[in-house]
Amino acid sequence: MFTMVYFYFMKKSHVYFMTNKNNTVIYIGVTSNLLKRVYQHKMKVYKGFASKYNCDKLVYFEEFDDINQAITREKQLKAGNRKRKEDLINANNLEWNDLSNGWLFNFT
Q1: Higher model confidence: residue 24 or residue 3?
Q2: I need a surface site. Which of 39, 72, 88, 102 has the fewest CB within 10 A?
Q3: What pLDDT, on a 0 to 100 scale, did the predictor assign at position 1?
Q4: Is the pLDDT of residue 63 over 70?
Q5: CB atoms within 10 A of CB 31
Q6: Residues 16, 46, 12, CA angle at the centre, nearest 5°?
Q7: pLDDT score recorded for residue 69
Q8: Which of 93, 106, 108 is nearest to 1 (CA)?
Q9: Beta bridge partners of residue 11, listed in sequence order
Q10: CA nearest neighbour of 10 among 30, 31, 33, 29
Q11: Which domains does the chain have, with CATH numbers?
Q12: pLDDT for 6 beyond 60
């Protein structure tokens, strides 16, 4: 099962929103490997905005077949105001739960 899930996430590109435990900050990113990238956020592998503000909770993501489409969408989302970002999250994840709960992070 894990191999199938890992393979699925590797073949798609994603735009994603991470937030902190109090939902006060929204980080928007794009990746070709959502599983690995969420793990990196949780482990604070890279120092930057997301690690500084403890953005380790995945609250929203969109899937694309092409990384260029994902990058275009990321730019569009980043240009929007916070209310539009909150509206997207609320439409799909009203309680702002961590969508990665239950994912297996194993990269051996």
Answers
A1: 24
A2: 102
A3: 44
A4: yes
A5: 20
A6: 35
A7: 96
A8: 106
A9: none
A10: 33
A11: 2-92 (3.40.1440)
A12: no
Average of per-residue pLDDT across 74-95:
96
Please, are residues 30 and 13 in contact by the beta-carbon 8 Å criterion?
Answer: yes
For tokens 């990238």, what's the residue? 37
Taking residue 89's Cβ as centre, other Cβ atoms within 10 Å add up to: 17
Question: Are 28 and 78 a contacting pair, CB within 8 Å?
Answer: yes
What 67-73 contacts at long range (C-beta under 8 Å, 24+ apart), as own/partner pairs, is 67/13, 67/30, 67/32, 69/13, 70/13, 70/14, 70/15, 70/30, 70/31, 70/32, 71/30, 73/15, 73/30
pTM summary value: 0.85
Can you tell me whether residue 97 is helix, strand or coil?
coil
Cβ-count burial 7-21 (b if 16+ within 10 Å, e if not): eebeebbbbbbbbee
Q: How many residues does the chain have?
A: 108
